[in-house]
């Protein structure tokens, strides 16, 4: 059964955040809130975590996983980014955007798109997510909690606990969060390509 952690949305309890971070370091798969709906997250190099996310969401090997990063400095360790793209990404973070960019050698091969060698990166604008990332000290490998056959991602912690009780190890609930997935922008070709229109405003990329 999944452990259920209820945290304050504006002042998350440090002890609880530390417990969740410790469980992630021990290879746990967690469901956690972001500024654009819930996500599934695990340790950066967790093969079992990746396999479990693929199973829950029924994903193939072309799916772009996202590295949820604390800040721009951390993001820069995992993707290659030129000056023009740098400015566009910097102006849009933190926020409800996922950017697809060429991965550096810091990214495990199993996370990259098999042909393009790219990975998704994101800096969330959410107090609880930021607290977890600060405690963890590294990016959280993530994927939107969108179940097979559903049009909308899950947005309620207690529903996730009921639905995925035996498929995830922990649910971190801080009340209402976003209801739309991120807007996905692919910069791997040098120009902005809008892959998915979501919570983030796309006008600056059109």
UniProtKB/TrEMBL annotation:
Residues 14-200 form the YrdC-like domain. InterPro entries: DHBP_synth_RibB-like_a/b_dom, Sua5-like_dom, SUA5_domain. It holds the Pfam family Sua5_yciO_yrdC. Gene3D superfamilies: DHBP synthase. Signal peptide: none annotated. PANTHER family: DHBP SYNTHASE RIBB-LIKE ALPHA/BETA DOMAIN-CONTAINING PROTEIN (PTHR42828), THREONYLCARBAMOYL-AMP SYNTHASE (PTHR42828:SF3). NCBIfam families: L-threonylcarbamoyladenylate synthase (TIGR00057). This is Threonylcarbamoyl-AMP synthase.
């Amino acid at each position: 059964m999944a452990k259920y952690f209820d945290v304050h949305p504006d002042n998350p309890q440090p002890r609880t955040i530390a417990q969740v971070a410790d469980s992630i370091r021990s290879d746990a798969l967690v469901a956690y809130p972001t500024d654009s709906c819930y996500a599934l997250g695990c340790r950066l190099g967790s093969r079992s975590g990746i396999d479990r996310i693929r199973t829950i969401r029924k994903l193939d090997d072309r799916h772009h996983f996202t590295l949820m990063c604390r800040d721009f400095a951390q993001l820069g360790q995992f993707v290659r980014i030129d000056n023009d793209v740098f400015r566009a990404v910097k102006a849009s973070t933190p926020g409800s955007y996922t950017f697809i960019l060429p991965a550096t050698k810091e990214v495990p091969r199993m996370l990259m798109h098999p042909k393009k060698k790219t990975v998704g990166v994101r800096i969330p604008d959410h107090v609880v997510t930021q607290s977890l990332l600060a405690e963890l000290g590294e990016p959280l490998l993530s994927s939107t909690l969108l179940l097979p056959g559903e049009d909308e991602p899950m947005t309620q912690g207690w529903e996730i606990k009921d639905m995925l009780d035996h498929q995830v190890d922990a649910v971190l609930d801080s009340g209402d969060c976003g209801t739309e997935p991120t807007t996905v922008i692919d910069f791997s070709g040098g120009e902005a390509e809008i892959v998915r229109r979501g919570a983030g405003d796309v006008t600056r990329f059109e």
